[in-house]
Structure formats: C-alpha cells, structure tokens
Amino acid sequence: MASPFESNKISAPSLSQESLVKMISDTFANLTDKRKGKNTHYELSDAALSAFAVFFMQNPSFLAQQISLQKTQGKNNLQSLFGAYSNPCDNQIRSLLDGVSSEELYPIFNNIFQELDAIGFFNSWKVLGNSLLIAMDGTEHFSSEKIHCECCSTQKLVNGKTRYSHKVVTPVIVSPKQNQVIPLAPEFVTPQDGHTKQDCELAAATRWLLREGQKFTTQNVTILGDDLFSHQSFCRTVIKQGMHFIFVCKPDSHKLLYEWLGDFERENKVSSMTISYWDGKQKVFDHYRWFNEVPLRNSDDAIFVNFCEIKSVNQDGKQLYFNTFVTDHLISGSNVVEITTAGRSRWIVKMKITTH
Fold first, then answer.
1. Does 117 map to a domain?
2. Cβ partners under 8 Å of residue 122, min gap 6
3. 130 and 70 belong to one structural domain
4. Starting from the edge strand earliest in sequence, which strands make up the sheet with 172-174, in order?
5. What is the pTM of this model?
6. What is the DSSP string of 156-195?
7. Are 48 and 113 in contact (CB under 8 A)?
8. In a domain, 199, yes or no
9. For the chain, which terminus, N or C, has the lower number of CB atoms within 10 Å?
10. What's the alpha-carbon Rg for the chain, to the nearest Å?
11. What stretches of 3-43 show up as alpha helix (H) in DSSP?
12. CB atoms < 10 A from the CB of 115, how many?
C-alpha cells in the first residue's frame, strides 16, 4: 500500500518516516511484558518492531534477510531503520507478542489520525458536504478445525466437526478521490465476558463506535458498510454518535423497504436519472433511482431512511454493476451520484487487499 505521505504531496514533518517509527517504538517500549524469570534474551519491543518491519517493508522474507545480513555484515536494516537490535525468529516473535493486549497498540492509530488531521491531510478526502468516509468490514484472519483458544469464534459444520476462527472488524478511512486508505484501530470479534451468545461482526462494530466515536466529535463522519450493517440498532448507534451512514441494502433482508419501493413505483414517485460517459473502452450508462423517507423495518419504532440504486450498463444493455444503498443523507438529483460513489468506495479496501 502506497505511503499517504508520498501520494498526497502534503508536507508532514511531524509524521516523517523517522518520527513515525519513533512514535511506534515509544509505544512498543512500554508494552506489558508478562514473562517471568530470566528468560528475556529478546526485548519485547524488538519483537514488536520486527513484526512491524515486515508489514512496513511489505516483504514476507524481510526478517530472514536481516538475519543473513547480520551474520555476514555485522549489521542490518532493522537496526538502521527501526532501531531493533535483536532478531527473533518468526516463532519467537509470535510467542513474545501473544501475551500483549491489542488495546495497548490502539493509541498509535489515534495519534497518527490526529497528526494527519492537524495538517489538513484529509481535506482532499472529504465528500458529501465535508464528510469523512469510514468503511467498516469484517475479515477472518485465522481458521482451523483443530487449533483453538478461548478467543475463537466457533461454527458447527455439517460433518459434526467444529470450525474455530478469529475475526476482526477493520475500520478504514477511504475516499473515492484517493487510491490509498488510512486504517483505524480495529475491534476483534471475540467472546465477551458475561455474554452467553457468540460475538459477531455487528456487535464488534457497535463496540468500536461506542469506544472510538468520541474521537471524531469534531468531524463530519459517514460510516460505510455492507448489508450486514443496515440493521436498525446499528443505524441508531451511528446516529447517536453524531455520524451518518451509507449501507448496502439487499431485498432479502429488507422486504418491507422493497415493498414500499414497489408501491412508489406504481405511483410514479421514484425519482430517476441517467448519466452516460465513455470509460475508455465503451459507452456506459449509469441509471440512478432514489426515494426518501422509507421505514427500515416492519415495526412501530422503525427509523426512516433514504434509498438509492445504481445500475450501470453498456451500449448493448449488458449490466456492468448494480447496487442499492440506504442512508440518512437526504437524496436528490444533485447528490445521488456522490452518495452512490461514496458507498462504492469501500471496495477500495478490497482492491488493496487483492493487489498486494
């Protein structure tokens, strides 16, 4: 993933590579070390810096290369670039860091965001009346039918076996104007103390909003997400945090809303427009439809949302893209394109994962 400091051409002296590494190093130096006795050959901070270096350099064989350099030349890039003076192997790094709580690393994300915001870094990212887009999505980063721990989510398979997994919700600042993303502190999907039910992405995302929402009180934020997040309780939580939302909305999970759409269509109350353009290969027609003030679910306390749809076809009528969204932004002909474009920008994250 490209460095945002390079691609946005914004001077960020407080977030140069050296100062960024120092910020991270200072945090790592204060990590809780749960080791007992004298088995402390490797510093915990060196293990954390070594793990960070792999992702910073985007090279899975980086550590092996550093060990080789140390043996042949007596020094390595871990020392010069990251200030790590010991080279634990992969298994040693895992063993050392397994006991560290992820919460101890969260301040790094917040500090970086504040530094970027202070220099106006996000000014060119904002859309929809100066709104900052935060895309939320869950991802699975471990799965096994044999290895498991108390933090695992479980799933009973049809063959009677149990599948264990680790999942995390990863909020990320995105923009249709930019081709890079800025990650925020995550929230792990893991069994919660005092809860009998399994944890889930929606519950984890709610915890993130309640924990991190206050840090964005000076921002106009719009949360993006897939159909899972277009849930009444989560939408209410977003609104209570003073934020907006744009979520995918599928027919199977929002039957009442689509019944209203059918009624509006029969009464010719659905607004629409078409925009055509040349994408470099073919002529594309983007068909938009929208209407405002429709209940999200079939209940007396249902919140009312605004609905929009985009369907892209080529000149032969072949469908190139289709999606539908619900939002609390009031939709009109002047902003429906911007709203759907913002909703689609969460795919920037998936494209980054795919191409790196």
1. no
2. 116, 132, 173
3. no
4. 182-183, 172-174, 132-135, 221-225, 244-248, 319-327, 304-314, 283-295, 271-278
5. 0.86
6. E-TTS-EEEEEEEE--EEE-TT-S--EE---EEE-PPTT-
7. no
8. yes
9. C
10. 24
11. 4-7, 17-29
12. 16
